[in-house]
Amino acid sequence: MASSNATPSTSQADAPSERNANANRPKQKELLNDPARTGFDPQTKWWMNYFNILSGQMTKEGQFHYREWRYKIHEERDCKRCEEYRDWLFAYSPVVRFLSDKIQDLNGKLDASNIVCRRCPSRLEEDGTVNRQAGGFDPKHGILVCANEMRDRKHMEDTVAHEMVHAWDHLRWKMDWTGDKDLKHAACTEVRASMLSGECRWTRETFTRGQWSVTQQFQNCVRRRAIQSVMARPRCKDDVQATKVVNEVWDSCFSDTRPFDEVYR
């Protein structure tokens, strides 16, 4: 990819993405696990901890630490599976192959050398919110896929396609990721990535996220996920500013399906 000093763009898992701290937000401290308080004890068998979850003896905080503990244990397995998914997508996925060709037309390149699979730690906030991410794009390094967040190959296809739209936008429009236009550029590419990647198709919204709205479901999903992603950026103060900037770019960016002819996923 083209070299640039840029803040990575992140795509969400089915919870808000990890946020970057800035001067407008209070500094968060790491919440360490206390088995006596949370009900999670890494020294016991996994099935005993799982029983504690089922029986309600483990707090939400304990469940967070349990999940992170399991992710560490299965890191090698998850990364290997993620790499197998990645290679399959570049061989057989229509959307990934199409975007790869379009990125090459702009003198960019995304392949196994710069689409990497890693375990991405989540973060537990003091209010109980769990911040997670599925992947991210950085013009200087390529695409990061959070192997521990990938449920299946379809989920990975949506995630990779989302980040590839960011890559195409960066190469095509020479995006300003860090300057004064940062938030509008970020809002526009997030709208387009959520719209074109397939992550907001009806089946994903309904059966994965439990969003059962009949009308405007696709538009609501794109808008919601774009706002969440803009909120994750350091220059964004809060959800009010994120909503405002997404609304400002909505009409032009939601109607722009390039490099596709239309939204088909």
Automatic annotation (TrEMBL):
Annotated Gene Ontology cellular component terms: mitochondrial inner membrane
GO molecular function, one term: metal ion binding
Biased amino acid composition, Polar residues: 1-25
A GO BP annotation: mitochondrial proton-transporting ATP synthase complex assembly
Keywords for this protein: Hydrolase, Membrane, Metal-binding, Metalloprotease, Mitochondrion, Mitochondrion inner membrane, Protease
Any matching Pfam family: Peptidase_M76
Residue span of region Disordered: 1-37
Subcellular location: Mitochondrion inner membrane
Record flagged with keyword Protease: yes
EC number: 3.4.24.-
InterPro entries, per database record: Peptidase_M76_ATP23 (IPR019165)
UniProt membrane topology term: Peripheral membrane protein
Similarity section: Belongs to the peptidase M76 family.
Stated role: Has a dual role in the assembly of mitochondrial ATPase. Acts as a protease that removes N-terminal residues of mitochondrial ATPase CF(0) subunit 6 at the intermembrane space side. Also involved in the correct assembly of the membrane-embedded ATPase CF(0) particle, probably mediating association of subunit 6 with the subunit 9 ring.
Name assigned to this protein: Mitochondrial inner membrane protease ATP23
